[in-house]
C-alpha cells in the first residue's frame, strides 16, 4: 500500500478543480473510486493502487513532472517575469499547474537542453557543485580554437574575476570562414560547473568570443534532436530513472 491521500487533494493537485469544486462534484455523484461512487471529498485513496474517476475519466496521479525543452533564444530561464517571456510561457497550463521551475539556467541568447521540473530533490542533485554533473555545449567561436586552448581548458583557466575553472574537455569539430574571411571554429565543450556565463568567459580567457551557444546534454539527459527551438516533450521513464540513479549518491 502506498501513501494515502484525500481524494480532493489528489484531484486538485492534478488540476481538475478547486477543493470547493471537488466537494460539490462528490456530492453530485461525479467521483468514483474503484467503480464505487464516493460522495465524501475527504475520502482517503491510495494514488498508486486505486482507480479514481471524475465523471467517466480516469485521473492518474503523479507528483512530479519532467519536461525536456529545446530552449530558444530570446526567452529567459525563469518561472515568471513582468517584462520578458519565460520558458514556462512555452508550456501548456496543464503542466504549469504543477508549478515547475527550470533546473539550472541558460542565458537569454543560448539555445538547447533545459530540464523543467517540480522535483526539488532531483534539481538539487543536478545543480549541487559537489556532484560535478557534466554539461556539454556546442558553440560557434570567433577565431581559430586550437589544441593549446584545449590544453588550457583541461588544466583550468582563470576567469575575469580570478576564479580558476575546474578541468574541462574541449573537442574541436572544425574551422571555417564566414563571408568576410573571418575564421569561425565549431567546438563542443564539457564542463562540470555552472558559473555565470561560464562557457563565454572561458573562451574570453583565451582570447576568443562565443557567437552561438547551445547546450546538448546535462548529466545523463541528452537533448532530443527532433526538438526544434521552442519545442518540448516530457521525459521518458527511462530518462527520468537514469537521471535519478546517476546523481543520487555522494
Descriptive account of the structure:
GO terms for molecular function: RNA binding; rRNA pseudouridine synthase activity. This is Pseudouridine synthase. With 250 residues, this protein is an alpha+beta fold. The protein has three domains: 5-58, Structural Genomics Hypothetical 15.5 Kd Protein In mrcA-pckA Intergenic Region, Chain A, CATH 3.10.290; 66-129 and 221-246, Alpha-Beta Plaits; 135-218, Alpha-L RNA-binding motif (Alpha-Beta Plaits, 2-Layer Sandwich), CATH 3.30.70.1560. The chain is 22% helix and 28% strand. It is built from seven helices and 15 strands. Strands 7, 8, 9, 10, 11, 12, 13, 14 and 15 form a nine-stranded mixed beta sheet that branches. A hairpin with a 5-residue loop joins strand 11 and strand 12. The model has no long low-confidence stretch (mean pLDDT 94).
